[in-house]
Structure formats: C-alpha cells, structure tokens
DNA sequence: GGTTCGGCCTAACGCAGGTGAATGTCCGAA
DNA sequence: TTCGGACATTCACCTGCGTTAGGCCGAACC
C-alpha cells in the first residue's frame, strides 16, 4: 500500500513567521511536497510505508478505528508536525491520516531521512523534540479522556489548538482558525456529536468562546484555561535553545 | 528537585530470559542502580531531572495529576521501559513516577546517555524503538479511553499487561503477575474503584480471568482479546531485526 | 428550481457509571 | 490477641452523557 494518489508536486508558499524554532518546517519546505484536498485520506490504518510525512501547510487528523467501527481522533497534525514518524524502514501505521483542510506535506524516505539526521544536528534535534512533544501531548490526552468531563475536555482541546497555533504564529489576539466540525471535536474528545453541541453552546453562552465558520475566538484565554484546568507546560518541553556545548552532542546526531 | 532518597546501590539480580531483543535492559543492568520500595515516589510531577531512568526490575506507574487532585495513570513501567526519556538536558517531568512493587531502576545522566547513544548503534536503536512503542501505546490508550466502555477498558488493560510481560518472558501459560490494586486499575482505566470492582467480578463470573493476590490468569487469551477488541499490533512495531545493511544507519546513531 | 448532502441544532428518554457510605477480609505490627 | 490500615465488596441513589430521531440551513449540483 502506498500514499493516496498525488495531487500536485509544486512547492507551496512558505509558512508565515514562526515564534519558535521549528527547523523541521524549514527543512520540509525544501523536500518533495504533495497536497491533499479536504477529507482526502493520506494513509490508512494498517498500511505500510517507507516514508515519513511532515506537515507543511494545513491540518490533518490521525484516527484509530476499532474493529466494530468506532473511531477516535488521537492527534491533530498542524504545520511542523510529523506523521508516521517511526523510523523503522517499513512499519505499519497504527492510525489513519486524513486531511482536514487543504493539506501540504513533505514526503521523505525513512532511509534517506535517517542519513540526513546523522549529518544534521539541528534537524535531528528538531525531530526528536517533536517526537517528545507528541508523546507529551498524548500522555496529557490520556489524562483528559480518563478524568475530565465533557465541558473540560472540549475547553481543553480548544485551548490546546489555540496555543499550538500561537506557537507557530498562526494565532493572534485570541483568534485562530479551527477547521473542525463539531463531529470532529466530538471524535477527539470521546463524546457524541449531540453532547458536543450542548457543550459548545454552553461555552458560547458563558462568553468563553466564539466559534463559527472555521474560526475560533477566545476572549479570555485565562478564564478558558481555568475551565479546562489547562496547564500548558506539557506543550513546552526542555531547552528551546540548547547551550553551545550541546549543539553537537545534543540529540543523537 | 532530585530523585527520592536512595535505598541501595547494589546491582540487582538480572532479569530472566527475554523473548525479544531488549538491549536497553542489558545495558541498564550495567549502570548505576537504585531501588525503591512499593509506594515510594521516584519522581514528582513538575520536578526537573538531568537523568533518565530505565526500569530493571519491578513495576512503576506514571500518573498525571490535575489541579483539583484527580489522578490518571498514564503508563505502567515494566522491566526494560524508560521513564522521563526526554533527552533535553534538564526537562521538567510531566508526570509523577511511583514504585508499584519493589523496584530497581538504572539512573543515567542525560548528557552521558546522549554520548553513549552516538557511539552505540544497538543501544540507540533500542532506545528509539522504545520511544516509538511508548507513543504507540499512548495513542492506543487515547482510543480506549475515548471509545470503550468499562468492561472493554479493563479487559484491554489486562490483555496488554499480559502480553507485555510475555514479551519480556514474564508470563507463562496464561499466567502472569499483576501487582495492581483495583484502585490502580481504576485510575488507569478512567473509572471509579467501585465500578472497576463490578467489572472485574463480571469478568471473573464469565470465566475470563482469575485475579487475586497479585496474580493474573487468563484461561483463554483469545476470548479475552475478543471482549477487549484487542489487536496487539500496536505492541509490535517495525523490524525486530533490521537488515545487515541497516545496522549502521538504522536508528539515528 | 429542485434535490442532495454536510453541518448544526433540539428534544425525550434511558442507562452506564459516578457518589457516598457501610461492611467484610486479610495481614502485619505492637 | 488485638489493633489498624489496605483492599475488596456491596448497596441505594443519582446524573452526565448516549441514543434515537428529528428539523433547519446553506452550498453544490443537476
């Protein structure tokens, strides 16, 4: 099995200003690119692939589907994020990946990427930092789904999406894009679409969010974070700028 | 903040036969070891540490605590597993780590470990494989907590713990150890202790499990896996034995 | 202009699982 | 031999959320 059929190979316009070092994104911009239309599948659960993906533009969702058909969104991919990042040469992907918006990804052969990593400390550092971040987010989501009620879950998701966008310079003044349908929010939060709707309306009534036409506004991030018991430290790992002495050794180079 | 106080530095007896290559465990056996008593804290959420931990013997739990006190177990550490594996030199740990049994861990400075990784392809491969496995398990748990009901969750947890032990040669003939209290099962599954008890009794009544005095028996793993909709592929990543050509390049070495 | 389809919203009803509390059992320490 | 603490068990009661089933709107397409 391979990637879903190709749409275009033209390098896309570059991302706008990023607030954090994300060398991965810079790197990706120079690779072979592929674009997908909204709702187009990128990879299916169970496929094998010899490539890793780096999202350059747009959003993707990663879902796990159970035998009986129930689906859970386990991760959202934003620009700079990795997909199927297991570097074993041909590994089975454990989740389906679908474009949520128009999506541009860089496709890099795993073998090739591994050799690049050995030669490029900065890339290597970016890559492993990214992996750690994924794990950290995933752990947090385990806690959220295990302990929080519906309102907290939805609020937490929206906070996270806002802050992740802020990090890549895609959020300003409490506003960011949010190309998710309520059904997708539900699938990410482990709720039904009906109940998600109730919760969103409740958040709106309390003046905590505005959410319409793919746009999310959070008037008071502080209040919102209180509702969600949001503690953003899980999004900011380790040393953003390693010391000079470390630049060589830093992540396994 | 540092590791909880030390108990003993004697190298412990080695693990018994392992079914899978786990070089990490071999490696760990040669490092500085530390042991903890059951219920002893190893690290607290929010601590900074310049060390990674490799579990040599015993079980640990990793929990995330919310601001209001609710706790969720986000991972169980078995022999060969890593804790606080973020290699950034001094990173904050996002979860508390506590010994569930008498526990022996290897403590390795991150800086030191990084240099070891660069020089040792086999260690490096083991390490990154382990990281990928953690992520894979965590993703799966996101799906479990988001989609499954109580019985499925508990059954899935028990299947996973059984198979993970089988992998390291700690399960035979459908029997393995399970040093968890019902409260801990509950904290891992996002349920209350009361309801977890109901579910366990139900599983017992159906003859799916025997569970008493820290011992778990699964008479028919097949039936159990059916109840849990268990698909073990998430526990077996990538190439167990990379080709010769790859041994050098394989994981970022 | 009608039809279809995706997305949002609403309402009535029922149940899985939470809550709170009491009781039982085992076991190690004094 | 008794005491206390950790765990398991059971009960009565309640509620957050799922389920089912609809209605409304706008966009895309004939």
Write the layout of secondary structure elements.
2 copies of one chain form a homodimer.
Chain A: H1 23-29, E1 33-36, E2 41-43, E3 48-49, E4 51-57, E5 60-65, E6 71-77, E7 82-83, E8 91-92, E9 96-99, E10 103-109, H2 110-119, H3 121-147, H4 150-167, E11 171-172, E12 175-177, H5 182-189, H6 193-205, E13 210-212, E14 215-217, H7 221-228, H8 246-249
Antiparallel strand pairs in A: 1-10, 2-9, 3-8, 4-7, 4-10, 5-6, 5-9, 11-12, 12-14, 13-14
Helix pairs in contact in A: 2-3, 4-5, 4-6, 4-7, 5-6
The structure holds a DNA duplex (30 and 30 nucleotides).
Question: What features would you describe in this structure?
Answer:
Chain A has 253 residues and is of the alpha+beta class. Chain A has 2 domains: 23-140, Sandwich (Jelly Rolls); 149-228, Winged helix-like DNA-binding domain superfamily/Winged helix DNA-binding domain (Arc Repressor Mutant, subunit A), CATH 1.10.10. Chain A has helices spanning 23-29, 110-119, 121-147, 150-167, 182-189, 193-205, 221-228, 246-249, and strands at residues 33-36, 41-43, 48-49, 51-57, 60-65, 71-77, 82-83, 91-92, 96-99, 103-109, 171-172, 175-177, 210-212, 215-217. In chain A, the strands form 4 sheets. A 4-stranded antiparallel beta sheet of chain A has the order 1-10-4-7. Chain A has a 4-stranded antiparallel beta sheet with strand order 2-9-5-6. In chain A, strand 13 (210-212) and strand 14 (215-217) form a beta hairpin. The radius of gyration of chain A is 18 Å and the shape is globular. Chains A and B meet through strand 6, strand 8, helix 2, helix 3 and helix 5 of A and strand 6, strand 8, helix 2, helix 3 and helix 5 of B. Chain B binds a DNA duplex (30 and 30 nucleotides) through residues 149-150, 181-183, 191-195, 197-198, 200-201.
């Amino acid at each position: 099995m391979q990637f879903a059929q190709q749409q275009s190979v033209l390098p896309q316009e570059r991302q706008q200003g990023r607030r954090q070092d994300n060398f991965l994104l810079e790197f990706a911009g120079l690779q072979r690119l592929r674009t997908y239309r909204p709702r187009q599948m990128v990879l299916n659960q169970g496929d094998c692939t010899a490539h890793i993906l780096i999202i350059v533009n747009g959003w993707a969702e990663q879902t796990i589907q159970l035998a009986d058909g129930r689906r859970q969104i386990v991760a959202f991919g934003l620009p700079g994020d990795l997909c199927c990042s297991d570097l074993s040469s041909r590994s089975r992907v454990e989740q389906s990946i679908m474009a949520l918006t128009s999506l541009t990804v860089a496709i890099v052969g795993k073998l090739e990427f591994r050799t690049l990593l050995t030669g490029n400390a900065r890339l290597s550092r970016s890559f492993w930092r990214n992996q750690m971040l994924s794990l950290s987010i995933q752990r947090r989501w385990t806690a959220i789904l295990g302990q929080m009620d519906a309102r907290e879950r939805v609020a937490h998701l929206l906070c996270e999406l806002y802050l992740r966008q802020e990090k890549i310079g895609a959020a300003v003044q409490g506003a960011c894009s949010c190309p998710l349908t309520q059904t997708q929010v539900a699938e990410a939060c482990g709720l039904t679409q009906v109940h998600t709707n109730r919760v969103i309306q409740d958040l709106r009534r309390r003046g905590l969010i505005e959410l319409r036409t793919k746009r999310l506004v959070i008037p008071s991030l502080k209040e919102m974070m209180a509702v969600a018991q949001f503690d953003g430290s899980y999004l900011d790992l380790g040393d953003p700028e390693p010391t000079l002495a470390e630049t060589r050794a830093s992540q396994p180079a």
